[in-house]
Write a structure and sequence with these properties.
- With 598 residues, this protein is an alpha+beta fold.
- It folds into three domains: 158 residues, 3-Layer(aba) Sandwich (Beta-lactamase), CATH 3.40.710; 188 residues, Beta-lactamase (3-Layer(aba) Sandwich), CATH 3.40.710.10; 180 residues, no CATH class.
- The strands form five sheets. The chain has a ten-stranded antiparallel beta sheet.
- β15 and β16 form a beta hairpin.
- α2 packs antiparallel against α12, α2 runs parallel beside α13 and α3 packs parallel to α8.
- About 1% of the residues have low confidence.
Length: 598
């Protein structure tokens, strides 16, 4: 990155820490313009046993995902022999609502490059400086221009311009070309999302149209995928390395295309979408690398699996398309945990499906196991505290009622009603109602929460949060009944589901917990209202989010510092500076409010 680019990136980070939310990015925030897309056509469904998969294997897999405390799974779609044998969504997430894919988007750009190469539109040996010759400054001598399309594909460009720089630059192609390289291009692996953005920009330049439009007749329509939304850079080019929205069913189709060596059955017969040779190269080791703590390999925007044959599309926070050629399976997963590259989902996949439990031919039907699997899938909920109460199948006998232990007392709506209708004000702050992870990804930083009012009805609660001059209204359900709403921040709409619980803390203080699930994202916001003082005239508002903002910040800094932790790249004693209290305020917001009695 050039000297001025480094200064702008540092300035953006400083403004974020200083609370100057209006100028975190060097360009004004623009709403993404997400629109409702046409629904995709699902692949044919089949009973697991008819495809050689015992329903017990699927039950064990989903049960593991549900019980694993390190995971926060949102959706799964499993294919065997090209048939959909299991699909589930953890409520209130939906099987049909597209979700942010983060770096999983890269693998789709890899497909687009393969299609363009087959059409003779570009060559993998072309250099960036020849494609963007009109964007080069006079007397250009920079190394980035010498990078080839192939080196971008396998993450070996070595260019320093990264995700942090994209927040401070409007023209990403120009900033990338003006950057420098940390090593000779092609000499080793260095993961950088801007490599994939440059591929996206190259495809737009070469085809004369947007990446989305280019792929519509070549990929989306043949696979029966409703044309998805793809976020763009400030100059209108798809971000490439992130920003794509897909459902688990859409994701599984893309994996199945690779599993079928680039061929796809359409209404008029089999059609070649990707050349078989490209698929073989894309799914083969092209460069050695590290993936977290293990040795790995990288293909054409694809990662190798930790065990044997197969590869994966991979996105931060647990977005996967796992391709298992030996088992003839594809498993698509969306999640919201705090992992950068891999989590225990991959362990569960290996242990449930890659240890010889599957049959190459069909198995006898097993209605009992199918019924158990169906019951489990219908009970999945992303927030255990909001699970609807389980109704007894039959009225218990008198003896059963006498033997049943009495439930522990818990606070209820009447106990919380003493605070009903109150308005609390907070001191000036920069704590966001919008999860910080979403704010950073979109560059959307609304005002902090200044006032809060709520009213508890018999069947729902209403909350009003005031940020600057904007009032956000939220209706939340009780007893596992989550209610939909749309929150707008800087004119960008974010659909969410809201639910409420009443609990007591360790000091027997009344706590109202408000959960906000943003189903187009991996993010869940938890807000705890702790009432204290005489007559509850004060409230402590604690906010948390999943994936953890602190964990996300740690991962992001690891990407832009080559995997170093804060204490390894900051000057000695820097963590004692006041700025770190500001970081803590951003990552773990906590506000003290006063009841406006008048």
């Amino acid at each position: 990155m050039d000297l001025f680019g480094q200064f702008r990136a540092a300035d953006s980070l400083f403004r974020l820490l200083a609370g100057d939310m209006d100028r975190v990015t060097s360009y004004p925030f623009q709403p993404t313009g997400r629109t409702k897309i046409k629904s995709s056509l699902p692949l044919p469904a089949s009973l697991p046993e008819s495809q050689g998969v015992p329903s017990r294997c699927l039950y064990d897999f989903f049960h593991r995902l549900e019980e694993d405390p390190t995971l926060c799974t949102h959706g799964v779609c499993i294919l065997r022999h090209g048939k959909r044998i299991a699909e589930a969504a953890w409520q209130p997430y939906s099987k049909r609502l597209p979700q942010m894919q983060f770096s999983l988007s890269k693998s789709v750009v890899g497909m687009a490059v393969g299609i363009a190469q087959a059409e003779g539109i570009l060559s993998l040996d072309e250099k960036v400086k020849d494609i963007f010759s009109d964007r080069l400054p006079p007397f250009y001598l920079g190394k980035p221009g010498e990078v080839t399309v192939r080196q971008l594909l396998i993450m070996s460009s070595g260019v320093r311009f990264n995700e942090l720089g994209s927040a401070s630059e409007k023209d990403w192609v120009r900033a990338w070309l003006l950057s420098d390289c940390e090593f000779a291009p092609g000499s080793r692996f260095s993961y950088n999302s801007m490599n994939t953005y440059i591929l996206s920009a190259i495809l737009c330049r070469k085809t004369g149209q947007s990446l989305t439009n280019y792929l519509t007749p070549r990929l989306w329509e043949p696979l029966g995928i409703g044309v998805p939304f793809w976020e763009t850079c400030p100059l209108g080019v798809e971000k490439g390395g992130w920003g794509l929205y897909l459902t688990p069913g859409d994701m599984a189709k893309l994996g199945q295309l690779y599993l079928q060596k680039g061929q796809w059955r359409t209404s008029s017969g089999w059609r070649s979408i990707l050349p078989e040779q490209w698929v073989q190269q894309a799914m083969s080791p092209q460069i050695s690398c590290r993936m977290g703590e293990r040795d790995a390999w990288y293909g054409y925007q694809l990662w190798g699996l930790a065990w044997g044959e197969g590869c994966q599309f991979n996105g931060v926070f647990g977005q996967y398309v796992v391709i298992l050629p030996k088992e003839d399976m594809v498993i698509a997963v969306t999640s919201g945990n705090g992992q950068l590259f891999e989590d225990r989902t991959l362990v569960h996949i290996q242990e449930c499906f890659c240890t010889g439990a599957l049959s190459p031919s069909s198995l006898p039907p097993n209605p009992e196991e199918i019924h158990a699997l169906s019951g489990l899938l219908s009970s999945l909920h992303v927030i255990s505290e909001l699970k609807p109460p389980v109704l007894p199948k039959a009225r218990p006998t008198l003896l059963q009622r006498l033997r049943r232990p009495k439930p522990a007392p818990s606070p209820s709506l009447p106990q919380a009603a003493q605070y009903n209708g109150r308005t609390y004000s907070f001191p000036e702050n920069h704590s966001l109602l919008l999860p910080l992870v979403i704010g950073v990804v979109h560059g959307n930083f609304p005002k902090g929460i200044r006032r809060m009012r709520f009213r508890l009805g018999m069947d729902r609660a209403r909350f009003w949060f005031y940020t600057g001059d904007i009032c956000h209204t939220i209706e939340a359900g009780y007893s596992g009944n989550v209610l939909p709403c749309v929150l707008k921040f800087n004119e960008e709409p974010y659909p969410c589901w809201a639910g409420v619980r009443f609990v007591l803390d360790e000091d027997d203080r009344m706590v109202i917990k408000l959960f906000l699930v943003f189903p187009e994202t991996p993010c869940i916001r938890t807000m705890k209202l702790v009432f204290y003082g005489e007559d509850g005239d004060h409230v402590l508002l604690r906010m948390d989010e999943r994936p953890s903002a602190a964990r996300a910040a740690e991962m992001f800094l690891g990407l832009i510092t080559g995997g170093k932790k804060a204490d390894e790249w900051l000057p000695a004693g820097a963590q004692k500076l006041p700025v770190f209290s500001r970081i803590k305020e951003l990552l773990c917001p906590k506000l003290n409010g006063v009841w406006e009695k008048e």
